[in-house]
Amino acid sequence: MLRKSLVTSFLALGLTFTPAIAAAGEGAECTQGKLTLQTVVDKHLKAVGGKERLKAVKTVQITTLFREGDTTVATSTMQRARPNLVRYDSDKNGARVSKMFDGQQGWVVEGSAAPQRLDKEKNAMMAEGAAFDDALLDPKAQGVALKLDGVEEVNGAPAFKLVLTRGANTEVRFIDQKSFLEVRRTYAGTHEGKAYNKALTFSDYRDVDGIMLSHRTQWEADGKRGEKVIQSARYDAPIDAATFKPVTPRS
Fold it and tell me: What are the helix and strand counts (H, E) for the chain?
């Protein structure tokens, strides 16, 4: 039987890779200082690599080392492909787990067990996170409220505060005023009937195939702290479509 705690924690790893929600408000004229909301969004996307480059990406592969405190908790490889295909393979303290979304249904495979379908709530969450494009690239299609809520200091430097809301869930992105790269993100909402709060801090940006990617993320959640460090990353490498289909592992 698939252990519920393992599935839930593994699903949570996706939050460190992909936006929980997407943004709406194309052309909004909320002004902070001399910059409108849309100007901040546009400058941020340009700093990351530009809209054309981001929309041209077809696949991404990232291998990451996760730590909780000073202990290595897991290694994970993520593979994504347009329009909404994703797979995570994780080795957590010797326990091998794979999670994938085939475009309609999410699956989890633990060890050598047979694939199991995600229930309705987990499947909806994974489907939302499987959207390939970043939140700010296609705001109207996502129907989520976005506002520019002033400036706050992050790591000793001012950052624009973008607030994204969807139902009872809120995501806040902090965009550095100088580099226009994202330096911090917070999440608040409910999952399986329980409230959650999570914070991510991004650093060590590097150019990977024309896209600026944070290689070090520190996280805080449920009173715990840790970090993820990207070991390798690549965009537009070929990925077989069968990668996203569930297959029972060999014993």
Answer: 5, 15
**Per-domain boundaries in the chain:** 4-244
DSSP string, 173-226: EEEETTT--EEEEEEEEEETTEEEEEEEEEEEEEEETTEEEEEEEEEEETTEEE
Q: State the burial class of residue 92 (Cβ atoms within 10 Å of its Cβ: 0-12, 13-18, 19+).
A: middle
Taking alpha carbons only, the member of 70, 69, 71, 88 closest to residue 79 is: 88
Is 161 in contact with 184 (CB distance < 8 Å)?
A: no
| pTM of full prediction above 0.85 | no
Of the candidates 95, 79, 115, the one whose C-alpha atom is nearest the C-alpha of residue 10 is 95
Backbone angles phi, psi at 11, to 5 degrees: -60, -35
Residue 150 DSSP symbol: E
Q: pLDDT for 126-178, tens place per residue?
A: 998 898 988 788 777 777 788 999 999 999 999 999 998 877 788 999 999 99
On the CB side of 3, CA atoms within 13 Å amount to 9
State pLDDT tens for residues 80-110: 999 999 999 999 888 899 999 999 999 999 9
Report whether CATH 3.40.50.1240 matches the domain 4-244: no
Going by their DSSP bridges, the two strands 224-235 and 211-221 should be labelled as: antiparallel
